[in-house]
Write a structure and sequence with these properties.
This protein is of the alpha/beta class and 253 residues long. The chain has one domain: TIM Barrel (Alpha-Beta Barrel), CATH 3.20.20.70. The chain contains 11 helices and 8 strands. The chain has helices at 18-31, 49-55, 83-88, 99-105, 109-121, 134-138, 142-154, 183-201, 203-208, 222-227, 243-250, and strands at residues 7-11, 39-43, 62-66, 93-96, 125-130, 166-169, 211-214, 233-236. An 8-stranded parallel β-barrel has the order 1-2-3-4-5-6-7-8, surrounded by 5 helices. Helix 1 runs parallel beside helix 2, helix 5 crosses helix 7 (142-154) and helix 7 runs parallel beside helix 8 (183-201). The radius of gyration is 17 Å and the shape is globular.
């Protein structure tokens, strides 16, 4: 039995403005009682950060994260937000390298490394997202892709900062498609991620690293996923938009 602390994370993507966020928060607090043995994290759109932080003010067990930050500390970058701004708004976590950022916005491994560094500088806890496309998986490149994505970040971060990172394995072919990796697939990929962390940061840190699974997670498959070897939590997309659904997910395992 692992002593790693489970993390249940919600990524709302481009859904829920401030008013919907308040509605969600009030209902979720009613449905989900604090669990001392796990962490829960919600990553709303940046325009809803302040409202969610305020709504969850009396629930320190519920964390708030930012979905993305700019790679620079500040500057003339219209439409972007910095890690420092997100921290000032109350975010204590931040995603980096989500597949949609890589695909739609061209985030490279080097760029993701810069964003992780900015999150760390702002005293936030990064969740590094990694994963392969269907084409890469069918070509037998799972290990190569995961190794490249992890090396691109861990090789650029100071060693004393590495314990603050968590990770999310998200098979791109299972995100928003309704397709979910079998528990055995998740276990295989998580083992690769953990091995690559060990290669760059040492076995002790790899053993302690929290690695989430993300990709069409829902109440109907959460128990099987959490029972898979090496799965320490989940990064939830669509199913996290409904307070009833997400409260069920966060109560499982």
């Amino acid at each position: 039995m692992s002593d790693r602390r489970p993390l249940y994370a919600a990524n709302w993507k481009m859904y829920k403005g401030p008013s919907e966020t308040l509605d969600f928060a009030h209902r979720f607090i009613e449905l989900y009682a604090p669990h001392e043995d796990r962490d829960v994290l919600i990553c709303p759109p940046s325009v809803s950060l302040v409202d969610l932080v305020a709504a969850l003010g009396l629930r320190p067990d519920l964390g708030v994260g930012v979905q993305d930050v700019h790679q620079e500390v500040q500057g003339a970058h219209t439409g972007a937000i910095s890690a420092g701004m997100a921290a000032d708004a109350g975010a204590t976590w931040g995603l980096a390298g989500h597949s949609e950022r890589r695909r739609e916005f061209g985030d490279t491994d080097a760029l993701v490394a810069h964003k992780v560094a900015r999150l760390l500088e702002a005293d936030m806890r990064p969740v590094l997202c990694v994963g392969e496309t269907l084409e890469e998986r069918e070509a037998g490149e799972l290990t190569v892709v995961l190794a490249r994505q992890i090396a691109g970040v861990l090789g650029a971060i100071e060693s004393e900062q590495l314990p603050r990172l968590s990770y999310a394995y998200e098979p791109v072919w299972a995100i928003g498609t309704g397709r979910t990796a079998e528990p055995s697939d998740a276990a295989e990929a998580h083992a690769i991620v953990r091995a690559e962390i060990g290669r760059h940061a040492g076995e002790e840190l790899a053993s302690a690293a929290v690695i989430l699974y993300g990709g069409s997670v829902k109440p109907g498959n959460i128990e099987d996923l959490m029972a898979a070897e090496g799965v320490d939590g989940v990064l939830v997309g669509g199913a996290s938009l409904d307070p009833e659904s997400f409260s069920q997910i966060c109560s499982a395992g």
